Amino acid sequence: MIVMKFGGSSVADAERIRHVAEIVKTQVSRKPVLVLSAMGDTTDHLLEAADEALMNGTVSIDRIKELHLKTMKDLQLSAEVQKNIVPLLDELSQLLAGISLIRELTPRTKDYLVSFGERLSVRIAAAYFNGLGLKAQGFDAWDAGFVSDSNFGSAELVKESWDLIPQKLIPLTDAGALPVVTGFIARDAEGNITTLGRGGSDLSATTIAAACKAEEAQVWKDVDGILTADPRIVKNAKPVGTVTYEEASELAYYGAQVLHPRAMQPCIKTGTPVLVKNSYNPEAPGTRIISAFEKRTIPVRAITSRKNVTLIDIVSTRMLGQYGFLEEVFAAFARYHLSVDMVATSEVSISLTLDTAQDLDALKKDLSKIAKVDIRTGKAIVTIIGDVRRSSEILARAFRTCELIGVPVQMVSQGASKVNISFIVDDTEAAETVRALHMDFFESLKLPDGQQAPFRSKS
Would you give the DSSP letter of residue 220? Predict the structure, then answer.
């Protein structure tokens, strides 16, 4: 078995659904299970409709209804299929009417509301695939074994899902059927619809793959896989053929928007490979995410950056030879519910970063009781993902590059992950730094003596 997940842009309209069908046809012999997101911007439109009902008492699903009815017409689906879709649209209208009446949108109701996107998408796509002879069957996630807790908006799947999912799906694929399952949603023990939060549809796919011991999970996006850098910053960014789960997680955390770290957890647990592919360019090889490399050949896999970071320097002579100082510092951050990203320490100081726009005056006042505090905004984290066993080489080249382009490094952190080296620069210098590092590690010109030299980017 394989699992193939297609995101919203991949099933945005009739043309894209036809394209997905062509991709699926090439993989039928591998017994696929499909996981689909809502069509295009449907989730956004559902939330906008809820806001209208909540704030203005207006009930309108015109944009949602028009998209799905037009898609069915363009796909030439039968009137019988439309009869299965209309009740869902009516149910959605009734829900919005209820919201407009009581002027309340609870987390439970919000999850119920946004579930309509995936439920409509799966029914339309499965009907079309079935018409092509693919023996497709559409499933709401709970009918495919997805049971969650009741943490609406960011639910976690409960342990029994790992047994229920293969019980539901493996007999179908063994019989030659094509299950088409809603991503992103589940049901709790009381039967309430829940959503799985950020990366939820990807998480649905990787959970199926891991629970069913599939050959691989394919996540079909609108990019050629994980790239060596953000293509909006580096025009010559190249797809990365293979990365480890750990490297992919670090890339996602520090700015890459391909696969959420949470979505990789099921496959990390079982060692199931994840293949990131481009549904707009299926011939591209994509990026394979695996447990580990047998042998590494290059020092750096990719370079990423994250802007709008706050840098905090905390200095106190009390730290010298004292215990409890770090505990006091991090307790202050915990009191204000602030999550720390990077940390670097010396005998008398701590430097750390926050990814927040929150007012930090109260935090500074608390910390000033035990140390001198300097808070600087407008910073960026530049992260190099690679073989940290070669960290001396990577750091030497990175610092040399920064020196040549005149960018001062304000803080450095090499964490326990052993796959990333991160440093702080000004927001205004982040793009130039990424371009210069990319040129050195991936595009550098060869000098006569065999050395590599970075050059200031002109783009």
Answer: E
Q: How far apart are CA 126 and CA 271, in angstroms?
A: 30
295: confidence class by pLDDT, cuts 50, 70, 90: low
Report the C-alpha dihedral over residues 205, 207, 209, 213, rounded to 10 degrees: -170
Whose structure tokens read 């998480």?
A: 203
- Interacting residues of 244 by C-beta distance below 8 A, sequence separation 6+: 289, 290, 291, 292, 293, 419
Assess contact for 206 and 274: CB atoms under 8 A: yes
Eight-class DSSP state of 191:
S
pLDDT at 255: 61
What is the value of pTM for the model shown? 0.85
> Around 264, how many Cα atoms within 13 Å sit in the side-chain half-sphere?
25
Query: What separation, in Å, do the N-terminal and C-terminal C-alpha atoms of the chain show?
Result: 45
For the stretch 64-83, pLDDT in tens is: 999 999 999 999 999 888 88
Q: Which helix (H) or strand (E) holds 404?
A: helix 391-404
Q: Using an 8 Å Cβ cutoff, are 436 and 405 in contact?
A: yes
- Tokens (6 digits) for 300: 């750096």
